Amino acid sequence: MRLRPPLMVVVIGFAATVAGAAQSNSCTRTVRDALLACQLSAESEFSVAQGKCDNVADATPRTECRKKAAAALKEALSSCDAQRAVRAGACVKLGPAPYDPVIDPANFVDKIDNPYFPLVPGTDFVYEGDTSSGLVHVDFIVTHNTKQILGVTTTEVHDIVRTNGEVTEDTLDWFAQDKDGNVWYFGENTEELIGGRPSTLAGTFIAGEKNDRPGIIMEAHPKIGDFYRQEFSLANAEDYGSVESFTDAVTVPAGTFTNCLKTPESTPLEPTLHEAKWYAPGVCNVLTQDLATGDRIQLVRIEKR
Known about the structure:
The protein is α+β, with helices and mostly antiparallel strands. The chain folds into 2 domains: 7-94, no CATH class; 105-304, YmcC-like fold. The chain is 26% helix and 41% strand. It is built from 3 helices and 16 strands. The chain has a 16-stranded antiparallel beta sheet that branches. Strand 14 and strand 15 (284-290) form a beta hairpin. The radius of gyration is 22 Å and the shape is globular. Mean pLDDT is 93; it is low at 1-22.
């Protein structure tokens, strides 16, 4: 007998109970849709695992195989619910309106000089930190390359992460600043690597493609309590930023910086991940810290290329 819970009944029941309330709330509907997709994906993976168990000839290991598959399903569904909770909490702050920012190329300028996020081509922000994964070294290189996205000329940043000397992430990011001074994040082409070989492209998106949307990576006039989307590619790239302080002092290998902006960040894709970033006026990001583990990625130096 298969250990298959009646998932579809649960999902349909959930959808029925929230459908009425969600009709005029785009954010709530998005939460519902993402939960359904997550649950169906979990059920799909469970079915595949069960199919493999069916081909284990011996009864005892076959039973163990099914138990492991059921446990994996339970864990996956728990993760789906945790993602739902993060998205639902964000909806309380973001409100019910659809997330569909108007992007007018005429409203953007040709340089990024926001005091907390200045990106001068030819600049390499070098970061390092001892983490639970090992020694992490990051080069955040502002290139001279540009890319047209939604008609906007964006600045390309090459972000390279090395863990214990080995490249583990290689990303191209695209940013642009509007006339008000907000810095927008228009997408990324990212790959994670294991042993020098690509393992996943998860997180890759370009604003305007597949209904993905840009977000604000740095506000022109941040205020304490602000909460905003930094990117929006549902179930693929969903970071939230907020504003907590303007007065923090931060000491890192590159020096001591005062009056730093602190921005806690979160994502439903990693519900247990809670980190904060500190930005020094006139410099950019000087520190990223995992608030659960204490791991710190610190600015070591700024180089010109």
